[in-house]
Amino acid sequence: MTFVLRILFLVCAAGFVAVPDAQARDRSGSLQEAIDEVQRETGGRVLAADIVRAGPRELYRIKVLTPDGRVRVITKQSRGGPRR
Questions:
Q1: Are the C-beta atoms of residues 34 and 62 closer than 8 Å to each other?
Q2: What's the chain look like in SS3?
Q3: What's the pTM?
Q4: In this predicted model, what pLDDT tens digit does every residue of 11-69 receive, in sequence order?
Q5: Which domain of life is it from (predicted)?
Q6: For residue 5, what pLDDT band results from cuts at 50, 70 and 90?
Q7: Is the pLDDT score of 76 beyond 60?
């Protein structure tokens, strides 16, 4: 009986670990999409990109070097909506 409970516990624990990992992959994929979009819009080179929280919202902060040599910081809202 204890063997069955141990197996059940391990399966449940693995499920809790897998969910945040999947969410992180989803967010990083959306960040990459935002980076690609900013590169297309500006024609520049991305210097840095971060995910920042603004209250319940998640924003992408992307620093880009434009073709005319200026550094711009562009903020885009994540497509996933509010995160908790």
A1: yes
A2: CHHHHHHHHHHHHHHHHHHHHHHHHHHHHHHHHHHHHHHHHHCCEEEEEEEEEECCEEEEEEEEECCCCCEEEEEEECCCCCCC
A3: 0.60
A4: 666 655 544 554 544 555 699 999 999 999 999 999 999 999 989 899 999 999 999 99
A5: Bacteria
A6: low
A7: yes
